[in-house]
Records
---
Amino acid sequence: MWIIPRCHQYNDLLSSKDGHTKLKRVLKAWVTSHPQFVYWQGLDSLCLPLSFLNFNDEATAYACFSTFIPKYLHNFFLRDNSAVVREYLSKFSHLIAFHDAELANHMSEINFIPELFAIPWFLTMFSHVLPLHKIFHLWDKLLLGDASFPLFIGVSILKQLRETLLSSGFNECILLFSDLPEVDIEQSVTDSIDIYCVTPRSITFRMHESESTLLEGALLQRHNQALSEFCSSLSSTDLLDLINTRFKKPKVLVIDIRDNEEYVAESIIGSINIPLARIPDLESTDLGSMESSPEMNILFNNKGSIIVIVGGEDSMRQAKFARFIVRLGFPKVTYVHEHVNSFECYGVLGPGIPS
């Protein structure tokens, strides 16, 4: 296995013959001791900061590397890592859509997908695209967060580049990320923490995050189906937390898309009813074609709140309605898979108001 370092060669220590030798030994030790994994391009970039910080202690560099990878990059270095990477990038897309509907819509319209720019970010935890001094600052905070925190760092970087991205087409975006522009890393760290703190945990749930989060059967099928949707699904636990009025929680609006008869019979207390049949074209953003109603007025008055779409057994209907709301420019939109009736045992259901 030949390792040819490609980044941070401006650093005298890392570009030296001794630096190359030490890096190669740590990487060889890791690959040899983890036969289930293979060497992927970018592994050297990931190892370089740890090799630099422990330049005279290769055993510690190896130990840090061996601890870092399973926490933040579990199974990323399998020979076939396609399912792992696909899930990770899908959750990144979901997070963008949740926090910045306008940017998510624009990127979708020009077909500028995370696969085109974000793989080197996450595969190397940004060490391939940022200079060492910024990596050390970023990783100081990263190491305090959970396995989902890198996704929030990615969103914070896009936030800094937002205006440029919104005014750019596909080719301009490709050029922009061919050499990542200057990033204010302190601002990125601050924004990452802020975004993380207001995001329900299930928005970034990944079954490949660890061995303990693996799914099977119907749950696996539902999870994989949700990955292809534009918006992330929300767990029933997170929804119950959001609507629990005993605690100070982010403002939430629950929209029930079932027919009014079903809604009136039993629905989540405080939810509003906008039947799916009332929307003539879910692909349209022409507000003039939509039937005016008190419920639609409530929706538009709650822009900026967390909006949760609920309905019946077919969660595809909830997902489509959520995409429609995002297409209208609403951030913080999500949906639940479970039928409204499944919340009966939690004491949050009651009769709805007839329209």
---
Amino acid sequence: MTLLDASGLRRVYGDSCGDCVELTGDDAGTNQCPECGAVVACADVSLDVEPGKVLGVVGESGSGKSSVAELLALERAADGQASGDVRLDGHDGNLLDADYETRHRLRNGAVGLVHQHVRDGLNLSFTGGGNVAEKLLAAGWRNYGDVRDRVRDLFEETEVPVERMDDPTETYSGGMQRRVQIARALATDPDVVILDEPTTGLDVSVQARVLDMFRRIQREQDVAAVVVSHDLGVVRLLADRTLVMRHGRVVETGLTDRVMEDPHHEYTQTLINSVI
């Protein structure tokens, strides 16, 4: 059974000449069209995620992985043209064609997102609890006591000190802010969570604690996830299957153990050798 299925994902920034996809990609060695200068952030990307499983998307900066994450999370970029097909079990039609109301409902229910940059995912002037409560209110929760109890439970699950719930988020450490983002993403029991570079800006020891926390919750709650990272260690720890991207294209995919231990594509081999 497939929970999330995406095919032909594409995002292009700039005025396309119409030949951008053919003139870019791994074989061309660039994601910028030599004819018109448009950037093909990603193209021809297809993937699927099963219930309770984790898909890793790995690649260097500029490989297109964050653009894929944004499309899967139903985030609309201020500029750029997007196309493709995203389907979520239990929901009708191509979600990329959904209207604002449907996207809003899905983003506050079935799909959770942990942004790469904390300021994109949290209002730092709000309290930590307020950031999570905002997601619940957007999903239709109205009882103050229920919201408060749910936030408290989420703080305990994500290992954020409950006594800090009413403190401004800007007073939290980087690791705590990341945990609040994860709590917010999990607040409405989504079917799938998209994590875009979940360890950005964190010290190595803090990264390990955040990843261990998420792995525990993901397994306990059996939630599906897509983890986007430039860090092979993050993907190796969390993902059942891995997709490797370069210059906006998928160059290799397979079970994570196989990709890490027996990479077929030269670029994947280079990535792995660079961290050994």
---
Amino acid sequence: MKDDVFYMKLAIANAKAMKGQTSPNPLVGAVIVLRGEIVGIGAHLKAGEPHAEIHALQMAGEKAKGADMYVTLEPCTHQGKTGPCTQAIIKSGVKRVIIGTQDPNPLVAGKGMTMLKEAGLEVEEGICKQEADRLNLPFFHLIQSDLPYVILKSAISIDGKIATAYQESKWITGTEARTEVQLLRQEADAVITGVETIIQDDAGLIVKDSFITQPIRVILDSTLRIPLHAKCLTDHMAETIICTSRMYDQKKYDQLVQKGYEVFVTNGERRTDLQDVLHMLKKRSVMSVLVEAGGSVSASFLEASLVNEAVIYMAPLLIGGKDAPTMFEGKGIKKLKEAIRPADIDYSMVGKDLKMTMRFQ
């Protein structure tokens, strides 16, 4: 059991290293061990390319016979862009398969384990299950809810401010936290912000110094106030979609479309409909979304129960001022029993800033 945990954690670490480049596929890692020696190791690198199990089997070669395979997610049984992994595992001669967690995809969902058992392989499931589950929260959520996984990020002072009363916000947190935010963007398929952030900061919302595909930039703009010279429209660094309501400015709409910018009109009468935005992104194979916005947009997502995870960086400073914006505005609650509470929360230090990762059911 001790060795099983060690090798499964190694497979999880391999899978985690691929964050940000496998969507819409899950993160998967695999390790093959023969008599205490690692003979094969692999991770799924990109959608459409071989799965982790295939990379590990190719590395192991003939040494896969009689070996144990550790894989973070149940092997697939269906023919997609690549062949079914279960058949390859059976053919290789692997005798025992240890699985981190079951795949909720209806095309798999237990079929992989059943097929392996029927072929005479020993199968164990649930080793490091919690870690394996967390590895693919966005993938699981997309399958189970038909909506992308939404991560809300905010940088705040101890008193909950995201800027001064005079709108100065650069920088509340330290360089270490800001570097982490770049990783959050890199791991997301899309980044959402409000038009106020574009007007105030001219935010580019790109992953700096990255050679991977940039996340889609989504601007929530109910009346189309976005400046035509905004960086997110003119830098050509990433795809940008402006999402608006039915109350949009027709003249501005025509100008944007004429210049080749994409405008998505939601069914919202006066405000951009967030459900419509998420459904539109899902159709574009977006699995995870990072919301980087002001208090009004953050409140809209939270009040609509659309936030799956919140990552808050709290800096050791006080800003004060009743007019200074906070991370969560909107109407607020009347009674404490109505407060939004996370299902679980993790704490860590990033430089001098406190990082809180909250997950909501």
---
Amino acid sequence: MHILLPGPTPIPEAVQEALIRAMSDHRGTLFGQVDVKVRTELATLLGAPTKDHIAILPASGTGGLEAACENLLSPGDRALVVETGLFGRRFREVAEAHGVDVECVEIPWGQAFNPQEIAERVRQKPYRAILVTHNETSTGVLNPVEALAQAIGTDPGAPLMIVDSISGVPSIPLTLGPGLDVIIAASQKGFMCPPGLAILALSERARQSVVSDTRPGRFYFDLRPYLSGRLPYTPAIGLWHALHAALGLLRAEGAFARLQRHRMLRDMVRHFARAGGLTLLVEDAVASPTVTALGLPSEMNPGDLRRHLENAGLQIAGGLGLWHERAIRIGHVGHVDRADLAAGLTLMAPHLPHSEQALAAMIPFLKEA
């Protein structure tokens, strides 16, 4: 089965092998070495000051969103949520569930936010935090998070910026820095592992906010033990071993080469789809390197197309939210190269209005190999 999903994504052989390693005492020396290596590598990858600014939870990416809200926001705190799609809405809903006073900037689907406009709004009133989505999986939009961090600045009174980068890093580099305080990721996308780990990287300012907070009401998602170098309960040992192996693969490829590969895959999909008669729902300038949303002609049904493709040996994702009835999504993230993508798109081509043109549009990308 060919998998072109925005998550879960294909798992490399080395990561699969790591998953079946024998269990060991999670408080013993063997796992302790893995713990230190994984958190140290993640700190380097995400720009965290030390390994004790990293928390790895046995949870989905949504668990990471909830952990961030639970540990960094209190009921009644004012937060600005920038909503650019379904997962921006989820971040808002998580914050609201914790009693946060949420103000929401809703951006039309398929568009990125304007960092200067958001920064101007922040200057008009105080917020405890800004919640933003780096790479909106539902629309395939890459948001200018780094530009927003720069626009907000490093004033001591500036709000914490908490970033959902679950379908962004490590495929799209993003690091903590001035104005950017928390990065939330998950294991099942660019990290090339099965689902089950939520990863949080915190700036020193965010870490101090968490470890000095003595209010009650946290337990499973309490980040304080993690940020003190302790595992409060049994971790997902097999997934830690898998993540350790995946981090080695990521380090070997390098951030620049990884980003270039994902950009090339994005461009290959967009050329294929445009030539094949599908609609690109996002402009080139803000198109995600990891997932592409495509509008179908009115005579095509997304659900029927996905079923036909799965029978042919290809899994793609359906549209979400506002685009559920009119779109599909193609993931090109993680352990995917141009040959993998070409194989999947070749299975898809016969179902498009202009199949021969779609296949021809891929050829220049294959010649680059």
